[in-house]
């Protein structure tokens, strides 16, 4: 072995020894830093759970409480991670991470535009949203009950049991139909009677059914009525319109509608109104 080779090996060995000694010296601080991260994450979970439960008891918007608690937890974890690097004596690494994060954020912003767009939309929706949990909404072709909202998606459960995850950006930019915002929804159906029947008599019979039904709402802003809609070749087409409570929309609402249709049919026939047209 020549002298140059021996010196290279010796230099490499000394470098390894020096790095090993530095690592041993820093090991307690690294362990302390890891402990800070573990304890910080646990504390963040406890704090956010307490916050979420406390807000849920007082707030009327559980979706916002849950969303904000997750956001607070994320911020807390980032702060704890930076603190752990500082405790471990890796402040230069922490600074480098923050500097690199800025550049990565710019690149990621172009590479993951949809993710960033949905995240920002989620933050906006947390404070300004046209629906609440358990509201029935329709976004595009998707209809169902709002179950949850996270950083990227709004979860909606359809009436046939499917879970639809709608991107927050769609919820923010597309028209949202809220079927339960004010608690009222108007339903309708059609009745065909023969030309020989008295129209006013038939309308009176149907109107009385609407007025007497316990599940139909009637006030100054929500009127229930029957009107002539069309004349067909062999019948007069009546349109029946009525208001119901939408807290259990699509289940209770359709049960009420079906019951009224059955009652109208049976009562009209009982009073001699010809419906065989």
Automatic annotation (TrEMBL):
Instruction: Write down the membrane topology.
Output: Multi-pass membrane protein
Mention one GO molecular function: mechanosensitive monoatomic ion channel activity
Under InterPro entries, the record lists: LSM_dom_sf, MS_channel_C, MscS_archaea/bacteria_type, MscS_beta-dom_sf, MscS_channel_2nd, MscS_channel_C_sf, MscS_channel_TM-2
- Single GO cellular component term: plasma membrane
The Mechanosensitive ion channel MscS domain covers which part of the protein? 116-181
Q: Which residues cross the membrane?
A: 26-47, 67-87, 93-112
Keyword Membrane in the entry? The reply is yes
Q: Write out the entry's keywords from A to Z.
A: Cell membrane, Membrane, Transmembrane, Transmembrane helix
Residue ranges occupied by any Mechanosensitive ion channel MscS C-terminal domain in the UniProt entry: 191-275
Which cell locations does it reside in? Cell membrane
Per the record's keyword annotation, is Hydrolase included, yes or no?
no
Record family assignment: Belongs to the MscS (TC 1.A.23) family.
| The name this protein goes by in its record | Mechanosensitive ion channel
Q: Which organism is it from?
A: Riemerella columbipharyngis
Which lineage ranks, top first, belong to the organism behind this chain? Bacteria, Pseudomonadati, Bacteroidota, Flavobacteriia, Flavobacteriales
